[in-house]
Amino acid sequence: MFSTEFLDLPPLTGAGGSVQLPGSKSISNRVLLLAALSQGTTEVHDLLASDDTRVMLDALRQLGCTVDEAADGPVRITGLGGSAPRSPARLFMGNAGTAMRPLTAALALLGGEFELSGVPRMHERPIGDLVDALRQLGCQIDYLGNDGYPPLRIAHAAGLPVLELAEPIRVRGDVSSQFLTALLMALPLVAERDVVIEVVGELISRPYIHITLELLARFGIAVRHDDWQRFTIPAGSRYQSPGSIHVEADASSASYFIALGAIAANPEGEKGIRVLGVGLDSIQGDIRFVDAARAMGAHIEGGPNWLHIQRGAWPLKAIDLDCNHIPDAAMTLAVMALYAEGTTVLRNIASWRVKETDRLAAMAAELRKLGAQVEEGADYLCITPPASRADWRAARIHTYDDHRVAMCFSLAAFNPAGLPVRIEDPKCVAKTFPDYFETLFAVARADAAQVPVICIDGPTASGKGTVASAVARRLGYHFLDSGALYRVTALAAQRAGLAIEPASEAHIAALARKLPVRFEGGQIWLGSDDVSDAIRTEEAGMNASRVSALPTVRQALIALQHGFRRLPGLVADGRDMGTVIFPTAPLKVFLTASAECRAERRYKQLISKGISANIFDLRADLEARDARDQSRTVAPLKPAQDALLLESSALTETEAVAQVLDWWQERRPFG
Fold this sequence. Notes:
By secondary structure, this protein is of the alpha/beta class. Helix 1 packs parallel to helix 3 (97-110), helix 1 (25-37) packs parallel to helix 6 (206-218) and helix 4 (128-137) packs parallel to helix 5 (177-186).
């Protein structure tokens, strides 16, 4: 998962391949709570691993449920089964409405003393209508901050009061469907007689209530409804674990890849985007996003657990749509509208204003940054795309700590003007889809020349590897330690039984072309083996020198280094990155330091590892190596003509990294 301050997406040109989606947030947290309220143990397969499910799991443990999590396996929840939850308890619910609201209702009806709080944005999300409905029943719930909003205190120290269940419980349906879901999940706990809920006003987000009813049925609760306005929970209802349950993939998350298939041209040999984990038979209302995408021109096929999307009409067709049935996925339509001919109108989306942020205002503001004309109403958006390529803008997308804003605006990188897009705070996608950007990059395509590269060259012991690695982490880019490639190649040749000599040159070159090397977490990997220490021996250095003397192997490694230029970008360190390997890189830095300073750094490094060293010998060795590197006929050590010189003798690592990042920011078009 990207944990960087921002993530720059270069212009994207196409997409093709398969995507395995994570589990649905809406289904995951409902299943966890239902399992916690049930008799028996429930084995939950394909549970979404995200911030929202994590806070729910933590809360269930605090309340006395047994939670067993196996790596890459199902989660097992042993429910309360009628027992009282552990009390008192203070529960932190993050920004998870799917956890805060149903858990509030359940705890209010189970009895005990509880405090429920969240992040500051959660304390701005309304919960008053749910609290009012629970107070109708006789539950004691107090606001600890502003009336109508979390944090809350539930206080039944003397036991649960007598509940008023004879009359229908009334709850507004036009603010958030989560209020009704919370009551539907909690009231079976006290259904000694038929319990009736009446919805006041129009029920928004009806598909999410459908999900709730489907899951209640799986746990033994058969709720009847009359035209979605009156719901009856039968007398004697009792939660019973189904034993095992699978979580569907998130249909809202599918919307980004459905849109991707509709927008992106197919690379040669690819046939669109295949989405796995959710199909046309999904119980989730957001699967109807498929109908909206088809109306805009996408070609979509599907079956059980899969969808296949290809670009059809181009440009896309503008639509005028009531989006009450797809409230979350409709955000993706707002970005698809950038690629449509004409003005797209999205209606009946007032619920956007009480989500993780005021999504109506947020979407309008960010769409305008890209060059669109946007009219924002109380419950609608009208979006007219930029009139021409010249009207598009490179934009910094503020994400408001809202996962869906971050994900849907990533699609703006396909803009016809070929402009990059910056996504601020990309880690906010952890709420529902922690690996979203990695998944996107696995299927998206970009012209290699558009994938940014930062080259950091310099002499031995100048600190270029340390600085380059830190810059890569800060930007979320890939990292290439070119000097290590020759050492890894020599090691791989030895393991393959090849002598490092001219007679083996062709075989070593063939091995080098497909060398499974990667740089992750500060370590160097050859396939599944961490070879960081193995390639730092004196013998490995001598073998690397022999490998570098083989011309065919050098050519193979040049091609291999070019292959590291992958989305979203690359930071490469070495001695010829800016002069030979990536001569068109937009930023080239030549990092150096005095021989005295470099010798001192190397001396401290060796001593810290328990290796004896002589600082004078080290300096002499560095000066001799500088002379060899500068005088060699192939790729001599020298700054590229357009490189920026960074003398680091008096700089800390942090200061050197900051300078490189400042230079990079100056070259970005975001202002």
